[in-house]
Amino acid sequence: MSTLALAAVHTKYNLVETARIPIAVIGSIVFPTLAFCMFVLPQSTVTGDPGYATAAVCSIVVFAFMASGLFSIGLDLAEQRSKPWAPYLRTLPGSPAARMIGLIAATLVIALVAMIPLLVIGGLFTAARPGVLPLVSAIVLVVLTAIPSMLIGVIIGTAFGPKAAIAVTQVMMFLLAFGGGLFLPPLMFPDWLDAASRALPVRQAREIVIAAATGEQIPLWAIGGIVGWTVVLAVAAVWLARRDEGRRYR
User: Fold this and answer.
1) Which residues, in sequence order, are CB contacts of 237 under 8 Å at separation 6+?
2) Cβ neighbours of residue 158 under 8 Å, at least 6 residues apart?
C-alpha cells in the first residue's frame, strides 16, 4: 500500500475516532462561530461595512483552522505518544508520514465543517458579500495557508508530553491569534508590532485569505513568508519525528 493510500486510511479512522466523541466534534464546530458572535457581531461599525465584515469573517476562519491545528493535532499527538498504541504503530512497516498526513487531513476536514456555520452567520448578519470565485479562492487558500499551523501542532505534539503540550499550545495560540491580527485588526497595531506581526505565518495567512475574498492583489511578502514557514516547519517536524523515533522506538 502506498503512503498516500495509507494516509487515506489513517484519515478515515481519525475521523471515525473523533466522531465517537460527539462533544469533541461539536466543540470544534461551535467554538469559532461562538467567537465570531461574541467578538464581531456586536460591533456594528465592522458588520455594516463590506470590507471590514469580510476581513472579520476571514480572520475568524483563519483562527478556526489555526486552533484546530494547535489543539487537535498538538494535544492529540502528544496524548497518542504517551499510550502503548503509538509505539505499536511504529513497529509496523507503514511510513510514519502516512500517520501524520492522515492526522492533518482529518483535522482539515473538521475545520472545513466548522467553517460552514461561520460563513452562514457571516452572510446573514453582516455586510460581507464576496463573489463566488473570490469565496472559492479564499476557501482553497485558507486550507493551504493552514499547513504551517498544522505543522506547529505536529512539532508541539512530537516535542512535548501531554501536560507540557497543553501549556505550550495555549501560549502559542495567544501569541499567534493576537500577534497575527485575528482578534485585533493590524490597523490598530503600532509600527513595530505591525512589522513583527508580518513575520508570523498566521498574519501571512490572514492577509492572503482576505485579499482572495475581497478580490485584491495578494501581497508578495505574505506568499513568500507562508512558503518559507511551510518549508522550515516541515523540516523541523521531520527532524523531531526522527529524533523521537531514535529515542523511543529504536
Assistant:
1) 100, 151, 154, 155, 158
2) 77, 81, 237, 240, 241, 244
The span from the CA of 223 to the CA of 208, in Å, is: 7
Residue whose C-alpha is closest to residue 75's, from 153, 12, 11, 13? 153
Q: Which ranges of 48-200 would DSSP assign to H, the alpha helix?
A: 50-67, 76-81, 85-90, 96-125, 132-144, 147-159, 162-179, 191-197
For residue 191, what are the CA distances in angstroms to 34, 78, 169, 214? 31, 37, 27, 24
Q: How far apart are CA 56 and CA 51, in angstroms?
A: 9
The percent of the chain in helix, strand and coil, each rounded to the nearest 5, is 80, 0, 20
Distance CA 248, CA 240 (A): 12
From first to last of its 250 residues, what are the pLDDT tens digits of the chain?
Answer: 777 888 888 899 888 888 888 877 787 788 888 888 888 888 888 888 888 999 999 999 999 999 888 888 888 888 888 888 777 777 777 777 888 888 899 999 999 998 999 999 998 999 988 888 999 999 999 999 999 999 999 999 998 888 899 999 999 988 999 898 888 888 888 999 999 999 999 999 999 999 999 988 999 999 999 999 999 999 999 898 888 776 655 4
Task: Please state, in angstroms and as integers, the Cα–Cα distance from residue 75 to each residue in 3, 9, 161, 206, 237, following that order.
Answer: 24, 21, 9, 24, 15
150 touches 69 (CB < 8 A): yes
Supply the DSSP symbol for 130: -
Cell of 149: 499551523
